[in-house]
Amino acid sequence: MGKYALRYAVLGYLALLLVAPVAMVGYRTFQHGVSPVWDALSSHDAVQALKLSLLITVIAVPINVVFGISTGWLLARRRMPLPWLVNALINLPFAMSPVVVGLAVFVLYSRTGWIGTYLFSHGIPVLFTWKAMTIATIFVSLPFVVREVVPVLEELGSEQEQAAAVLGASTLQSFFRVTLPAIRWAVVYGTILTVARSLGEYGAVNIVSSNIVGQSLTLPLYVNNRINQLDPTAAYSAGLLLAVISLLILVGMTAFSSRRHVEADK
Amino acid sequence: MADTALARVPGRPRRWSLPRPVVAGVGPGLSVLYLSLLVGLPVAAVISQSAHHTFWSSVTQPHTRSVLEFTVLVALGAAVIDAVTGVALAWVLVRDDFPGKRIVNALIDLPFALPTIVAGLVLLSLYGPSSPVGVNVAGTRIAVLFALLFVTLPFVTRAVQPVLLTLERDVEDAAACLGARPWTIFRRIILPAILPATLTGASLAFARALGEFGSVVLISGNLPHTEIASQVIFQDVENGVPQSAAAIGVVLLGMALVIFLLLAFLTRRNAARHG
């Protein structure tokens, strides 16, 4: 009966740590019906927070996808000088606390920082604006696409690219018609992870945001702000919205995670 | 990890054609420049900011020291609990069968998909001051441990699962035929096989827990005895002492660096042993 004991112990642990708390947020949000939730989500401050989160995501994700694919290709095809250093820099955002990432951006772009000095003297504010928040978000979500793309490119090998080159394809042609189709699911998977992180980042953007309600809060910052202002309905509504987005992302992850390597096996 | 995935495959030609100048020079150049500006420069700025004559005094100041001690301790606690629960979870997901197993398997990744602040909110709603089950741990050190366990849940399971899947059942059957008890089989056959993966997963969980912030802020209640390092960094920035924040940040960076170097070493040694 050890088998059943282990099964129910494990499921119980998951229920207590994961499922029950997440379900509780759903319950808390709709405790007083749907209309307070709708009011909370359509308030000016919540809409602004959602818009800012989307703006940052819309900028950060394409940049990281383009960087991830190109750098991943250069790494996998051994065209990169000092690959160990490049790898270390790529993995650094995962090894760092998000707060330290925020601090790093803060220090660099502050009035006395290496870049900040120049920017402030030319009247281009970056720190405490959406620009710094975007830079911090690009930083924390940088590794996702590269790390998905490199192993698939390695598995794939360069034979098909060689064949394309022999048949007279230009580098760009062979990239768009041979390489990219083969790694597309890895790219999709990495992109999903990048979107999730960009929408949900909290620590890194918190430090470089001016934290003004209705102006410079992202959705996660708004959740924290509403809890501190004792406005649980707004906090739970925004939190549930983020949770629903991440559940959708989870479904996407599950759907694509098995497909991303199959492509290379063909 | 990434660098082992990049190990040279023998027999594959290093270059297959004369690279065009654009690809050969400008591409890598741009890539390296971008990485240095986006990642290298800010990190260098923090290190330079911390290289202040106050570095030592800000790190060894009694409150900071106790915070750092608690951070390491609670992260270590989370990693150890994760190692046990993670192996059990992986075992149940690979060897056991029950209705809804695929959903449970997908749910494991939820903490990776959920924004950290929502993880905090989620725990606060069930284990906070207005808990419907009467368990209020908000503002205690247990709450910090809970939050860390929540966000680090997938690491060990996801590391051990693939190893368990490839394990040969014959060896276990043979051991059972020779009279080995289930516990002996686990200890002598399965555990040695999954130990490297367990250690990898637990180290990743430890590294993540050391720097965790979002999931902890709501439920730890911002009290001196529940603070972890990232919260002190945050407050130091808010209070206008970035030098002190940078000093603690560099300590965190250093610890993460040691963990990842150890992991790279372990992976390499393991790969060498198994060919």
Proportion of helical residues of chain A? over 70%
Major beta-sheet overview of chain B: none
Work out the helix count of chain A: 14
Find the structural class of chain A using helix and strand composition.
Answer: mainly alpha
Please give the alpha-carbon distance between the first and last residues of chain A: 43 Å
Question: Which structural class is indicated by helix and strand composition of chain B?
Answer: mainly alpha
Q: Which pair of chains forms the biggest interface, and how many residues does each contribute? A: A-B, 96 and 91 residues
Strand fraction band of chain B?
under 5%
Radius of gyration of chain B: 23 Å
Number of strands of chain A: 0
Low-confidence stretches of chain B: 1-9, 12-18
Would you count the extended β strands of chain B for me? 0
Shape descriptor of chain A? globular
Shape of chain B: globular
Mind summarizing the main beta sheet of chain A? none
Structural Rg of chain A: 22 Å
**Low-pLDDT runs of chain A:** none
Q: First CA to last CA of chain B: what distance? A: 16 Å
How would you concisely characterize the structure shown here?
The complex is a heterodimer of chains A (266) and B (275). Chain A is an all-alpha fold and 266 residues long.
Which helices and strands, and how do they pair?
The complex is a heterodimer of chains A (266) and B (275).
Chain A: H1 2-29, H2 35-41, H3 44-76, H4 83-95, H5 98-109, H6 116-121, H7 130-140, H8 143-156, H9 159-166, H10 171-200, H11 203-208, H12 219-228, H13 232-257, H14 259-265
Chain B: H1 2-5, H2 21-50, H3 55-60, H4 62-95, H5 101-107, H6 110-113, H7 116-127, H8 141-166, H9 169-177, H10 182-210, H11 214-220, H12 229-238, H13 242-273
Helix pairs in contact in B: 2-13, 4-8, 4-10, 7-8, 7-11, 8-10, 8-11, 9-10, 10-13, 12-13
